[in-house]
Design brief:
By secondary structure, this protein is α/β, with parallel strands linked by helices. It has helices at 4-7, 34-44, 63-79, 90-98, 102-105; strands spanning 10-17, 20-29, 50-61, 82-86, 109-110. Helix content is 38%, strand content 32%. A five-stranded mixed sheet has the order 1-2-3-4-5. The longest helix is centred in the middle third of the chain and has 17 residues, at 63-79. The radius of gyration is 13 Å and the shape is globular. It starts with a helix and ends in a 7-residue tail after the last strand. The model has no long low-confidence stretch (mean pLDDT 87).
Amino acid sequence: MPNAAVASSLTLEVQSKDRQAVVHCRGRLVSETGNMLYNAARELIPNNNCLVLDLTGVTYVDSMGLGTLVRIYVSCKSGGVTLQLINLGKQVRELLGITNLFSVFADMCEHGITPRF
């Protein structure tokens, strides 16, 4: 049974407008919380042209959290939706670099940009 304290260590706030959805993430993107983000993103894909993951409040990403970002990327690509990662913290950037995934996400990473609604 998942630990409720761990599962609640990631909070998501979704804003949608003009077929663009922004998911503001806060907390830890780890094995126990990855499915929550993936399920939220998957629900947004059919109704949007662009999905933005705002990682401003993400304090830590483990390998399973990284896998979640890859799963979201694949789902967006399959659904014809543009994915953007914004406001990446130092730890997330380093993780993408170490795993050589920064090149995959590079075109999608915007620095310090917050979508305007």
